[in-house]
Amino acid sequence: MSETNPAATAPMAADAAPHRYTAAMAAEIEARWQDFWDAEGTYDAPNPKGDLAGDPELAARPKKFIMDMFPYPSGAGLHVGHPLGYIATDVFARFQRMTGHNVLHTLGFDAFGLPAEQYAVQTGTHPRVSTEANMKNMQGQLRRLGLGHDKRRSFATIDPEYYKWTQWIFLQIFNSWYDDEAKKARPIADLVAQFESGERAVPGGRAWGELTEGERADVLGEYRLAYASDAPVNWCPGLGTVLANEEVTADGRSERGNFPVFKSKLRQWNMRITAYADRLLEDLDQLDWPEAIKLQQRNWIGRSEGARVDFPIDGEHVTVFTTRPDTLFGATYMVLAPEHPLVEKFTPAAWPEGTHDAWTGGHATPTEAVAAYRAQAASKSDVERQAEAKDKTGVFIGAYATNPVNGERVPVFIADYVLMGYGTGAIMAVPAHDTRDFEFARAFELPIRCVVEPTDGRGTDTSTWDEAFASYDAKIVNSSGADVSLDGLSVVEAKARITEWLERTGSGRGTVNFRLRDWLFSRQRYWGEPFPIVYDEDGIAHALPESMLPLELPEVEDYSPRTFDPDDADTRPETPLSRNEDWVNVTLDLGDGPKKYRRETNTMPNWAGSCWYELRYLDPHNSEQLVDPEIEQYWMGPREGQPHGGVDLYVGGAEHAVLHLLYARFWSKVLFDLGHVSSAEPFHKLFNQGMIQAYVYRDARGIAVPAAEVEERDGAYYYQGEKVSRLLGKMGKSLKNAVTPDEICAEYGADTLRLYEMAMGPLDVSRPWDTRAVVGQFRLLQRLWRNIVDEATGDVTVVDAEPDEGTLRALHKAVDGVRQDLEAMRFNTAIAKVTELNNHLTKVGGPVPRTVAERLVLMVAPLAPHVAEELWRKLGHTDSVVHQDFPVADPAYVVDETVTCVVQIKGKVKARLEVAPSISEEDLEKTALADEKVVAALGGAGIRKVIVRAPKLVNIVPA
User: Distance between CA atoms of 225 and 222, rounded to whole angstroms?
Assistant: First the structure.
């Protein structure tokens, strides 16, 4: 919504105030100081090698590594919501420099990904061209905000010299396995040595030397931390690519594009993040992260203790995972996920004699029934399949399993409420004590046996039950067999006894299960990091040697993966790289002579580059190592209070809780295990900033209209004369409510924008944007300027005189409060305290003492650095304000000299006393009772009780 430029409403004519702080002056000052900072390398952070070695004073400073989450260079550029976190980290970094820290603060670009590729498909522009143009635009916008980044350390994930090391890390993971005994990753060569020596048995029982190269590759693939496998994946025909679980929405559609997602079996690269599930959980306790984010990660990892139980079928067995092995006697049927690989194996050609009609789904044979049901289940998302619908569907596969604890034959079904992605993809169904199993059993007329005694009085006759009984605080019943009995035990006791029995009889074992699945790491796209993998003529995967890195993306004519009808689940991927035959088929010498190979034609997901970028900031031009160990140890190594090391402060959105943050933690732990880094965690402290929201105005059709053109009349809103609705929501180009930082900088200056965004409210809370309110911070800067500079002459007006007592107290209270607020990232209250001191100086009037003016400028410097630099220079200093010491308060002036004590009689205020803050209760009572007004109010009456709350309250109760 439009408004008038405040500069045009100035109380003093422009020609009478040529040195007034205006938007034009702000623009000139800001551009000049930005040039100065760049030329002087003001924000360059020295590294321990070389830079610090010759400067003992600098080397003695504590370090502070401050990071923002990687921005993606959008073609739309920034709106005012984007820089909120960047400004906050900049303010904090500036404060840390002024309190004696060696600060590393920089910013790069996460530049691979789908938007640039889609733009390339639409326009024929190479993704690199559009991405670099977008980066240049965003760099200009960010520079205008005065962000104090070390620009020597900036990079983009699309730079070959950067993704060389992304590929190198992939190879470290590919060439590693997780040693469960050592609880760490180790080189795959160690595992091969164990197989060769016989220290570790080769799966299948043969000797390692007897295996073919292909057989060895298959064995190692079961151990590698990066591996290719045929597995159910999230296939999105509308995008032409597979997606990780985290990229699929709750309603089973793609996060980007909102296309249907189907389960399909494809050969894809995966990361064995599940090997680190326990460590990812345990180490959360040592991180300074918001509890909400920790909870999301704990829930996503989903650790649960229970047992694996083997149910024999036709001489083989199906393994289930259950958290309630104590209910094993109550298992009356089994359910497999429709995708379970053993379904075909156990499905007979004909229905067994006596098969219940309700179990067949109306099909003539088990094979037909299974095929039809599988097709039905494939059309549903995991969320839809898990929905608590009363109508349970499924089909008998024609086979029976044996309950190991009592020898009973139990029918085996497939049903869509069981997923391959959890546990083993098979369950033992205990319908008496599980809601979904109960509903399924009722629908298919299956037995329901009570084995946990109800505590609600319903009894154990399940024919009278309306719902399952689930409890962990009850006794076990109806659970006795030939060699084990659980009757009368508590749930905890029964779980321990049956688990011991399972292990003793070889029928199962106690185990821990996780909801976390391995990370799907392949994308059928062009604009991503190529895999440094080639396949020989037998299809065996080989890692490229480090000397062949980076493997650069080739030029292609068609950037688009083949997309399909969004609803056609039977389609398969076709990648852009697969169409470049000259690149795909190559002759290479990998150490055993020239041979023909075929390159991997998938690319890495957009998360790959952001899994390790904090390390590149440390040593951005190192072409020989991932990072110099001494440099990494200095900036990120473990220290007191940070046992796993990591970035000191990481600021970004909460939406990355189980994507980027979990993936980056996994990569850090692998690199730590292999000895490449000293930090086992990437980010020690995490702070989630809130969102800047904006009003969205919609016409009668529900279409967003330009917010800047909406008029408010009598509490209603109108666009081109038509009434529109208003709702607070996101800010964005598509909603026609975006305000760019360029607009605000042009109208008020970058320092005003910085102050406004920091003053809007607590940093971690979302807040609405109001352009009309920006002027308040502009006026603060104008008053600050007037308190130091004569608007008519441009002369500095400060005086070399001692401040009065009131000003001294106002100054030191402000210094103390602002210092505490900046340290705690309470930027809004810090600005309030600066404003209060500035207003005090305006109210007192007259020239401001130099000592007060200089300290005020230093307090403003982290928040509004351009105007602070200008005023610092005008005050006669020749060095930059950036590295000046932040003021320190004198405690004697921080404490109030007196406080007001209220004296009440019968609850009514009768007197106010000015007393010392440290006055004792005894002295305060004496002072109050001696006060003339109190004596008069009592009128000689006796006193029954005196309640004293020093130093602010005395309550007298007359007799």
Answer: 9
